[in-house]
Amino acid sequence: MELLNTLVDKGLRRELPTREEALAVLATSDDDVLDVVAAAGKVRRHWFGRRVKLNYLVNLKSGLCPEDCSYCSQRLGSSTGILKYTWLKPEQASQAAAAGLAGGAKRVCLVASGRGPTDRDVDRVAGTIKAIKEQNEGVEVCACLGLLSDGQAERLREAGADAYNHNLNTSESTYGEITTTHTYADRVDTVNKAHAAGLSACSGLIAGMGESDEDLVDVVFSLRALDPDSVPVNFLIPVEGTPLAAEWNLTPQRCLRILAMVRFVCPDIEVRIAGGREVHLRSMQPVALHLANSIFLGDYLTTEGQAGKADLEMIADAGFEVEGADQVTLPEHRVHAGGGCGSHAEAGCGSHEDAGCGSHEDGGVCGTAAAAPAANEPRTDLVAVRRRGAGTDLAPNA
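The chain above was modelled as a monomer; its predicted structure follows.
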């Protein structure tokens, strides 16, 4: 397919595809999906080899959010039955982080629901970052706290944060359809604040909310223009009790095409499979590793993920290797191009990536499967509210 040859050549040169080419990737047939994966896989291996970076989420404050994001189980007035708790103490958060780091994660993402942090909240998170870094030499820490006010990104960096995550989620033209309590421009502003403070910027999207191919291409091109160091790709989990609970629009093949399009548009940027991989990719998860070079280990913010042991076995069985703490995630030209953590590899950071968290998104679950349903049938059996780890007395999944 000439399109794929062209996209591989452009990806190896870091050249931006045209919008038409990106749309054409999404329009390919299921019969061609493995050809698409093979082509995008060449670009992934050129810049990232066969390494897979593991990231671990710690939900510092769950639920209780005043924002009305339609996709989010922590939204205002949520009836989802998720865990709800206020701020974890620094020692509690550090203990939760330790489980993920012991499982092979090299980055911890500290997430808190809400519109954005107060100055007191920033102080709380600063104490948590200190506690985690004192007990885990070389760990990368990303903060994900919502919209930032002036000076807060600088304070987080001074406290030891390496990165900041805030997702754009969808195209500017459709943003008002999923959220009314803040704007797309607010999100762009926060990503720019993180950049300006020298934090590694991470920003991504949520697919499966009923958006068009044009919306997906728009948001990915907007992300490329913001030049984050990592792009988390979330697949909507239609959690019961949210406005988008009936939006089951994704198949494994559709997810692979989306990941391939993101890789072609962002060839040398860390692409992470974030929330929803277990629910929508299902048995095709190992194939997606040929497109993305980063995943989350274990559970997500409010829902359960695949068992951490299964994540590690999946990586090994697919012929990939877990990225070590001494390895730099990004290609050398990006490491030396700018600030943030990845430009200081000797400090044990090296990736600039982040967790698919800034939208308070959710993902995956393990669960037990009964008879296989039809390919496009909603898989509500694969969605389970998190009842372990942070905010509970039970051991985390890592």
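The longest helix spans residues 119-135.
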